[in-house]
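Deliverable D2.4 — example input (C-alpha cells):
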C-alpha cells in the first residue's frame, strides 16, 4: 500500500517537472489560465510554469500579446533587455 502511494507521488512530481520544463510556452500559458479559473493564484502558477501571468483574452493590458509599452524598448536593441544566450563551453583536446 505505501509503495503504491510513494510511486504515485514520484510519478506526479515527474509529470509536474515535465510540464514546467518541456511543454511549449503556449500550452504552459493555457495550463496557467485553466488553473487560474479554478482558484489557483495566477502569479504563483505563472512563476511555477515559467510564463507570464495573462488573462488569455488578448486585450493587451497584461503584455502577453506584445502590445504593451515595453515592446518598443526591446526592439531598440538595449543591452539590458536582450535575451540571454546560453553558451556551452567545449574543450578541444589535440
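Example output (designed residues):
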Amino acid at each position: 500500500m505505501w509503495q503504491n502511494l510513494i510511486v504515485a507521488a514520484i510519478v506526479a512530481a515527474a509529470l509536474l517537472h515535465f510540464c514546467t520544463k518541456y511543454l511549449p510556452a503556449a500550452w504552459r500559458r493555457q495550463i496557467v489560465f485553466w488553473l487560474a479559473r479554478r482558484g489557483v493564484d495566477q502569479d504563483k502558477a505563472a512563476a511555477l510554469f515559467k510564463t507570464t501571468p495573462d488573462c488569455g483574452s488578448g486585450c493587451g493590458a497584461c503584455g502577453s500579446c506584445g502590445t504593451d509599452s515595453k515592446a518598443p524598448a526591446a526592439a531598440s536593441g538595449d543591452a539590458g533587455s536582450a535575451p540571454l544566450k546560453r553558451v556551452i563551453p567545449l574543450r578541444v583536446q589535440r
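Helices lie at 2-21, 25-37, 42-48, 71-75.
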